[in-house]
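FAQ

Q: What does a record look like?
A: Structure on top, sequence underneath. For example:
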């Protein structure tokens, strides 16, 4: 969604209103919102006399929406400065420019008519009304006439139950058809049942449990629905379709996104359709655009082939650096592609991986910690999983280090080393292998919290840097399955990470005042990784919780949903008292990584089949509970027609009698085509058609430890939430060795205590709010404060840090500043002079005569504002090269700095600071120079992006000055 104001006054300058609308936008306006995936399915159709209408089916929820054109070139909002809630029947005058979302609160599913009245050109208005619903009371029974039907009940959080019914007209058909119905109030309007069939070319289950077989078929059918020949997104190609035999991301997300695709492929899709995964992976690679001349500091091949970081926080990469999730999909695809197709893909994969790894080493590696900087992987909604102050200071997000992102980098380094060795590049292989080992050590040194028995999800950003007492299930699981965590750490994580009645939340603890999405949510694909981790650690209790979460979610929702509220398992928890906390705020059926997770659960975890570099592994993990409650009286279960490298595989699990208690059943014997084998097979030893028989036997107790927590899903309980992050309301040096802080509670109550961190190290604990004096302050210490609930111990994010040294500010009008641009005066938005729109490749900026009076550690930052796009969108984050030279012209510090998108406010907009360049300096005079680097807009794949950076590369912002801050 474009942030720049759109002037549509010409719309009403002459002629009929409908003709003018068509002439201005060359397409209709659409009602675009959370209820339709922000897509273009609901056009405002002309009704005559300046009236436009769209009838939209809307489910219960507090839905964000806007009126916008297909390419977001035009937006019509009620208030360009704040969100507005509309109620059915109210009329609201619109402004023809961009702005925040409007919200519609809906209690029950229905059809809502959005009416745009543009008959008065000066006062176009919006009205939303509910129209009569069709009477479905006499709808026919979708199961009527079916030969076999079963019913199962799934308990709800409030002591009730949802009923799910499955039926098939012919249980003996080679490819069954199914009908599945549910009493659950579905997320999106529509029938309470779904029809689907087993797919030719995909495996099918025969377990004696019709529900289990059906849900596996549902996942296969949804995989095929996501297998498309064209993709599209409103932010690309003018919203028009792009040819690609790819996997789209879900019902409401019709594009290919790097991390969604990659995790989905790793979990299951690459095993079942490696060619389509490879096509999708190719789509997420790009070289330089024509006309781009990369600077010498970019360590890449001439073509620049690299992995694309999708649009996102602060203008994408390198605020976000998890594009190397691509590697986990590539590795699985290399294992499953036909041999003739593997070699060319392996060569391309190494080229792209090598360029991406080398570039990220320059742009996002922190040598002081050995970790890579950047946002948490997939937890990319700043308001959901970061401190409340973070959206206004995305440079601090950019300089933080995330567990999930670093583990993904570790996996990418390992794959690159392996491919380099295969292709005869020993030097590169050794370098990447060494970097991988060093990174594993850094993760365990910097992010492991011994007192919690888990890894911290992320560190605080610059001027703080402490590992936060925040945790996420994806990061923990990836650390386990990748081998970053050892056996003792694995057991601890599995026992310590909390589970609610419906499963494990994606973050812990939850955050007060945030609606359900990443916060307070279960994401099935994360649960699938949690299942892998549980199997890796032989934890049957955690595995059972994951099995239940995945099966229940697909059963009651009739689809593999994007996410669920974590304590209730609801696809939408409607909070009438505080509608802004309802959610998940967006939720799509057949979400690709949820589908991949379900398929992988059945194939890899239940039946035990996974791909190896030169074959397959056979390691089923059937728990006592799964055998007892899901497979009942069956003596064997089967997976038919799994296809790999052109060979067909049938797997039969022979089950022991159901047993009381917990644990998992040990594999006693494996027979392939009549011959006993071990639990790994080489591909060349498989026949064209293969029968694998696995006999399960003795119950192994395993590690059954699991942490259970619960609370009302409507209560912000200290049991499940962390406190609000506190404030440092005042900070002042009292003497050379003492600094006084004033800790602000920021709305926290009496059951909260506070911790103080100095330069990232804990120096005080269990403090009340108010004054505190650090009697051991350093010359230029920086401080941050954390809040903790006294009873649960759940912690907040850290406060925004403050430093004892105020730093030296040099504005752009200072005579020491030189640039090819001329400074402009302050205006109504900005109180400081600025070099406007600086950042073209040929632009220059330097500051001479920076005086350093005392030796120490310093941080150099650019004071700026970047309004190229919203803080949550775009490819135009500022990414530049900063060099500091001494009086003799010798470079003493240099590197990439980031100047992410920053918010605009009504009235004066505060300026922000870039990520810092770290420098250890002696007393003397220095010169600072800023030149170009690159961002994602320099890549060919983003040429059709509709926002800044699409038509031509955009790496520009306003400069207000520089700050030199002493930190030690």
């Amino acid at each position: 969604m474009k942030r720049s104001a759109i002037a549509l006054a010409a719309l009403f300058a002459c002629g009929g209103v409908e003709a003018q609308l068509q002439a201005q936008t060359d397409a209709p306006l659409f009602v675009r919102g959370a209820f339709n995936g922000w897509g273009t399915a609901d056009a405002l159709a002309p009704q005559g006399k300046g009236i436009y209408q769209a009838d939209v089916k809307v489910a219960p929820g507090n839905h964000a929406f806007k009126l916008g054109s297909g390419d977001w070139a035009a937006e019509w909002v009620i208030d360009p400065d704040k969100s507005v809630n509309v109620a059915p029947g109210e009329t609201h005058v619109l402004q023809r420019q961009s702005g925040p979302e409007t919200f519609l609160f809906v209690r029950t599913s229905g059809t809502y008519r959005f009416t745009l009245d543009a008959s008065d050109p000066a006062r176009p208005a919006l009205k939303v009304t509910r129209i009569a619903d069709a009477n479905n009371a006499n709808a026919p029974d979708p199961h009527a006439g079916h030969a076999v039907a079963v019913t199962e009940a799934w308990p709800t959080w409030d002591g009730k139950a949802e009923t799910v019914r499955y039926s098939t007209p012919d249980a003996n058909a080679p490819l069954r058809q199914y009908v599945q119905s549910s009493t659950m109030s579905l997320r999106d309007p529509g029938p309470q049942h779904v029809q689907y069939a087993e797919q030719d070319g995909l495996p099918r289950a025969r377990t004696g449990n019709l529900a289990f077989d059906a849900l596996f078929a549902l996942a296969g059918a949804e995989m095929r629905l996501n297998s498309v020949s064209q993709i599209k997104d409103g932010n690309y190609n003018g919203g028009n379709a792009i040819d690609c035999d790819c996997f789209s991301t879900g019902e409401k997300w019709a594009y290919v996104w790097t991390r969604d695709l990659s995790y989905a492929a790793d979990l299951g899709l690459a095993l079942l359709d490696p060619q389509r995964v490879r096509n999708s992976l190719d789509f997420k690679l790009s070289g330089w655009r024509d006309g781009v001349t990369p600077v010498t500091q970019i360590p890449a091949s001439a073509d620049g082939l690299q992995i694309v970081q999708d649009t996102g926080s602060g203008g994408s990469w390198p605020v976000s650096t998890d594009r190397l999730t691509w590697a986990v999909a590539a590795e699985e695809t290399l294992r499953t592609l036909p041999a003739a197709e593997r070699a060319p893909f392996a060569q391309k994969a190494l080229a792209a991986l090598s360029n991406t790894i080398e570039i990220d080493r320059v742009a996002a590696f922190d040598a002081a910690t050995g970790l890579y900087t950047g946002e948490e992987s997939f937890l990319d909604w700043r308001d959901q999983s970061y401190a409340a102050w973070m959206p206004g200071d995305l440079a601090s997000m950019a300089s933080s280090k995330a567990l999930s992102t670093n583990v993904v980098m570790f996996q990418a380094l390992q794959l690159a080393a392996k491919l380099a060795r295969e292709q005869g590049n020993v030097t590169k292989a050794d370098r990447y292998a060494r970097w991988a080992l060093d990174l594993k050590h850094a993760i365990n040194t910097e992010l492991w919290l011994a007192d919690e028995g888990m890894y911290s999800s992320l560190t605080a950003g610059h001027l703080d840097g402490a590992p936060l007492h925040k945790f996420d299930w994806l990061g923990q699981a990836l650390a386990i399955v990748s081998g970053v965590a050892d056996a003792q750490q694995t057991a601890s994580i599995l026992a310590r990470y909390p589970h609610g009645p419906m499963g494990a939340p994606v973050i812990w603890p939850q955050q007060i005042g945030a609606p359900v999405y990443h916060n307070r949510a279960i994401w099935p694909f994360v649960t699938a990784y949690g299942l892998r981790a549980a199997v890796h650690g032989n934890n049957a209790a955690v595995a059972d919780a994951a099995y239940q979460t995945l099966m229940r979610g697909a059963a009651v929702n009739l689809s593999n949903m994007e996410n669920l509220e974590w304590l209730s398992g609801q696809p939408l928890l409607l909070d009438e008292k505080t509608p802004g906390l309802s959610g998940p705020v967006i939720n799509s059926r057949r979400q690709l990584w949820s589908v991949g997770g379900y398929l992988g659960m059945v194939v890899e975890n239940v039946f035990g089949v996974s791909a190896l570099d030169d074959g397959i592994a056979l390691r089923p993990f059937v728990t006592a509970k799964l055998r007892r409650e899901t497979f009942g009286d069956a003596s064997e279960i089967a997976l038919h027609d799994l296809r790999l490298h052109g060979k067909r595989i049938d797997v039969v699990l022979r089950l022991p009698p159901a047993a009381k208690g917990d644990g998992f059943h040990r594999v006693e014997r494996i027979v392939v085509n009549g011959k006993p084998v071990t639990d790994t097979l080489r591909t060349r030893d498989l026949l064209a058609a293969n029968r694998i028989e696995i006999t399960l036997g003795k119950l192994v107790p395993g590690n059954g430890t699991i942490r259970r927590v619960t609370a009302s899903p409507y209560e912000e309980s200290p049991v499940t939430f962390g406190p609000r992050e506190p404030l440092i309301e005042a900070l002042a040096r009292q003497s050379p060795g003492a600094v006084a802080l004033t800790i602000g509670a920021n709305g926290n109550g009496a059951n909260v205590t506070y911790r103080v961190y100095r330069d990232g190290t804990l120096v005080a604990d269990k403090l009340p709010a108010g004054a505190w004096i650090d009697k051991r302050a350093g010359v230029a210490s920086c401080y941050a404060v954390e809040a903790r609930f006294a009873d649960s111990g759940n912690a907040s994010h850290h406060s925004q840090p403050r430093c004892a040294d105020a730093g030296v500010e040099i504005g752009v009008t200072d005579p020491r500043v030189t640039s090819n641009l001329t400074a402009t005066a302050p205006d109504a938005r900005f109180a400081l002079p600025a070099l406007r729109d600086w950042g073209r490749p040929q632009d220059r900026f330097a500051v001479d005569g920076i005086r350093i009076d005392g030796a120490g550690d310093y941080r150099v930052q650019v004071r700026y504002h970047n309004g190229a796009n919203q803080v949550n969108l775009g490819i135009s984050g500022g990414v530049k090269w900063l060099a500091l030279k001494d009086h003799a012209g010798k470079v003493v510090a240099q590197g990439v700095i980031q100047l992410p998108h920053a918010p605009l406010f009504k009235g004066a907009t505060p300026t922000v600071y870039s990520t810092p360049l770290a420098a250890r300096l002696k007393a003397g005079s220095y010169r600072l120079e800023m030149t170009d680097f690159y961002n994602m807009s320099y890549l060919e794949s983003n040429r059709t992006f509709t926002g800044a950076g699409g038509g031509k590369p955009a790496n520009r912002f306003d400069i207000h000055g520089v700050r030199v801050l002493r930190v030690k």
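Q: Is there anything notable about this one?
A: The chain is about 20% helix and 30% strand.
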